[in-house]
Amino acid sequence: MTIRFTLNGRPVALDTDPGRRAVDILREDLGALSVKEGCGTGECGACSVLLDGELKLSCLLLAAQLEGREVVTCEGLGDQDAPHALQVAFAEHGAVQCGFCTPGMVLAAESLLRENPDPDREDVRRGLSGNLCRCTGYVKIVDAVQAAARERRGGRRKK
Amino acid sequence: MSGRFPRVDALPKACGAERFAADQYPEGCLWAGAFRPGAAHARVLAVHTAEALALPGVLKVLTAADVPGANLQGIVHKDQPVLCGDVVRHAGDPVALVLAESREALERALGLLRADLEPLPAVFDPREAMRPGAPRVHAGREGGNVLMAAEIRKGDAARALAACPVVVRGTFETPRQAPAFLETECGVARRLPDGVLDMTVSTQSPFRDRFEVAQALGLDPLSVRVRAPYLGGGFGGKDGSTVQCLLALAALHADGRPVRMAWSREESFSAGYKRHPSILRCELGADRDGTLRALRCRMVLDTGAYAHLGGEVLELGMEHMAGPYRVPHILVRGFCVYTNNPVSGAMRGFGVAQATFCAERMMDRLAAKLGLDPLELRLKNVLGPGEENACGVRLTGSTEARACLTALRDHPFWASRREWAAQAPARTRRGVAVALAHNAMGYGGGLPDMAAAKVELTEEGRFRIYCAVSDMGQGNVGGHAAMAAQALNQPREELDIVLPDTERCHPSGSSAAGRTTYTFGNALLKACAAMADKVRARAALFLLCDDPSSLVLESGRVIWPDACKSVSLALMARFLPRDDRISVAEFAMPVAREVSGASRGFVLGFPHLLFAYSAHLARVELDELTGRVRVADYFAATDGGGVVLPQGFEQQIQGGAAQGLGLALMEDCASRDGRLLTPDLSTYLVPTALDLPEIGSLAVPSHESSGPGGLKGVGEVAMDAPLPAVASAVEQAAGIRLDAAPLTPERVLAALRRARKNT
Question: How far is C-alpha B46 from the chain's CA centre?
């Protein structure tokens, strides 16, 4: 059947089995390769997307659930020429090591900051607790999210 | 550091633009997957492939009969079949390989495959496996199930122990730990028309992979090309063949079509390499003032069904059993043993994480028995520069273990430990403890630990750096780019970076053993220096200057300040043939030359000359009702030599400590009868952001004169101390001894109950 939704602001019409996993459609059919798969069972958060603005795990979503909705992936937030403040903050503050969890982590951070523009460190940790990172120990990720939050609130960026 | 982003890979990764091996979907690619019947030990009587083959979209089902060559893989000991033909030796062993047109067809085919298996007697405890009558994991193997037995002997430990006024004893167990990298084992491969097998794999050792694949499948190593993009994590688990041989086999049968293989998380847990479970028994003797006299230890490692790097892990663990301390009399016996458990292998801390748990807990026990401050006891015995370590190696490199410890002594967490503990909230207890670790760098004696770096001046007049060692996330490419930018006096953004590719780069060792930046960095600095000299010499011709040393290499050009003349690199590059625009240099890590004759049974990789040191401080809070241990604060002081990228240094310390805290608190890849009880990430728990504390890091001033920018390596040392530090802090908090990791709430509660009963 044909499934229609918007991906990073662009309308998409895809003739596919509605029972396929969203993560496979996004990666294999639509080339949104920032959406990573780390577990396939909703534990690691690497395949996170924003679905109508809400953080969702695309390995647990079926194609049919995308119908008529708005999907945003890390590519949709920004690119290297025009990066999103969170992407810059992650790169600047050492929050990126292997980088495989990073796109999902950036989306989780975006979702958090939309709800809570001034999170303390514990808030950030709670907000990101659905996304596993095996490299960083999370300290620098928390630093990055707080720095981006400050910037978004119009404060000056602190080192 | 110039540039806004310390790491060249940071922004592309943050934008989701970086392409990992997992992101390769070549046009028309086939999907490959392994059928693993799940028996721990069984004779394979038949593999029934017809039903799967009959499915639409299934191209081939390969079995051991389709494997050309030796059908054996393994880095040192070649004992692991690519596809098992006669026998499966653990539950993750594969007996068939499916090639399908799509993910869906592959999954259906794997579900239809069946094997007739005749169960064989199996053994799951390494101690039982060592007994004479135990079932044999590898039938007919000389030495039975003992893959390796070795001994380090210095002085007379038995006599010295008998003469010691104080002796403490302990037995410790550490669990199987999964690397749990986010990107599972994966890659793509294709046989090109000229016969070359072109592979892109998530691998820590592209140059060694060529030989692994070639040996296993009977190919010419030079007909195998391996490319390694950035890895989505490795931690040792991608050091060696994971998907490589299976992928290569699939590509040989794919009629020139590309093939993709990506293990599921469950497959990664069952078939991937994990940290060796260990059992350590130890006696430590000292004088009444705390001066260490003698150590006697026995280390048993469970290597699982195949050797992989088991012997080498054992050797490194044994080498570190005495901790970074002065101990005149030593006897360490080690055994690495085959079982029908999942395969153990390299993982950050490579035997050292296990040994450090034992060594540091023994120091605490000794301090408690003598009524000494545990930090002062360590300071009293810690090795300094120029001293001889437990294996008879004189420490000629940077040795700042003492400075790491004194940094903790001055830290407020340590100074305030009694007040902090006294302020524990109701129904919680608090404890503060230290642990010290050392971790060798490099492969060790007997193995050439080398790297070759290539730098090219491109036709466009830019410098191109050929990075030949994989970056599994630790940031060595960023570090190398920073080094090259400085050596060539160019803005870092102007450098072109080539990631490891056996066709384009020169051979280098693996990304492992804390050696990556040290060896490749040294080679790169030599290559850059030679390139800078060459460019100045050629520029002298253009500028009609008879003294090239008066020329200055600058961003995109060479200038002659005295004459106010310059020539652009782009112009020069047009006139130089490619041969003349390339500079290659190599570096081999120094090895210990004078070694005491006291070690027996060591084959490769012993001993080491250079070590990193790290002293850790943990403040923990124990919930008396739930048994939950929370690490409230954490601090690490590390001697990793000079610091080239401060951010990268901290990343390695924080990440390593986090993995060590995972081992301390929750990670246990438990198995029963060879089957994993924790087959996925919902049962095998790794720390989330809520489970870990803020991790402070201090680089103690240090300089390793043989290292690039004075650095050593910090890839591993942060992994080793968290487990003993946390266990010790829990003992401080509640007076309970926990000698088996991880310190799960169940274990803590049971210990608390035992303690209450005894009082």
Answer: 37
Bridge partners for B114 per DSSP: B48
Bridging pattern class, strands B42-48 and A70-72: unpaired
**A88, A135, A137 member nearest B695 (Cβ):** A137
Cα-Cα-Cα-Cα torsion B50, B51, B56, B59, nearest 10 degrees, comes to -30
Instruction: Please report the pLDDT score of residue B360 as a whole number.
Output: 98
Query: Which of B182, B647, B654 has the CB atom closest to A38's CB atom?
Result: B182
- State whether B7 and A132 contact (CB < 8 Å): no
3-state helix/strand/coil string of B472-483: CCCCHHHHHHHH
- Looking at the complex, does the CB of residue A22 fall below 8 Å from at least one CB of chain B? no
Contact A102 B13 (CB under 8 A): yes
Across the interface, which of A91, A98, A133 has its CB nearest the CB of B231? A98
Name the 3-class secondary structure at B749.
Answer: helix
pLDDT at A108 exceeding the cut of 70: yes
Query: DSSP label at B577?
Result: -
First-to-last alpha carbon distance for chain B, in angstroms, is 59
Are B151 and B599 in contact by the 8 Å Cβ rule? The answer is yes
Dump pLDDT digits (tens) for B83-125.
999 999 999 999 999 999 999 999 999 999 999 999 999 999 9
Q: Return the bridge partners of B439, or none.
A: B612
What is residue A159's predicted lDDT score, i.e. its pLDDT?
41
Q: Is the pLDDT of residue B284 over 90?
A: yes
Confidence of residue B602 (pLDDT cuts 50, 70, 90): confident
Bridge partners (DSSP) of residue A62 are A21
- DSSP summary character for residue A104: H
Structure tokens given for B290? 């705390």
Structural tokens at position B54: 């009959």
- The CA distance from A21 to B15, in Å, is 23
Cβ contacts of B17 on chain A, cutoff 8 Å: 34, 75, 79-80
Contact present, B48 and B115 (Cβ < 8 Å): yes
Indicate yes or no: pTM above 0.95.
yes
What are the CA-CA distances from residue B298 to residues B172, B268, B383 (Å)? 10, 31, 22
Q: Which residues of A touch B232 (CB under 8 A)?
A: 36, 98-100
Strand B611-623 and strand B428-440: pairing?
antiparallel
- Those residues with Cβ within 8 angstroms of residue B716's Cβ, 6 or more apart along the chain or in another chain: B348, B349, B350, B352, B439, B513, B514, B612, B656
Cβ–Cβ of A44/B13 closer than 8 Å? no
Query: What is the token pair recorded at A141?
Result: 């990720």
- Between B603 and B57, name the one with better pLDDT: B57
Task: Answer for the pair B285, B331: CB distance below 8 angstroms, yes or no.
Answer: no
Q: Which residues of B touch A140 (CB under 8 A)?
A: 647, 650-651, 654
Both tokens assigned to B508:
């280098």
Note whether A130 contacts B16, CB cutoff 8 Å.
no
Among chain A residues, the shortest Cα distance to B5 is held by: A92
Q: Which tokens sit at B645?
A: 């990228």
Q: What is the pLDDT of residues B461-494, one digit of tens each?
A: 999 999 999 999 999 999 999 999 999 999 998 9
Residue B166's H or E segment, with its range, is strand B166-174
| Mean of pLDDT values over B4-9 | 89
Distance, CA of B185 to CA of B180 (rounded, Å): 10
| DSSP 8-state class, residue B80 | B
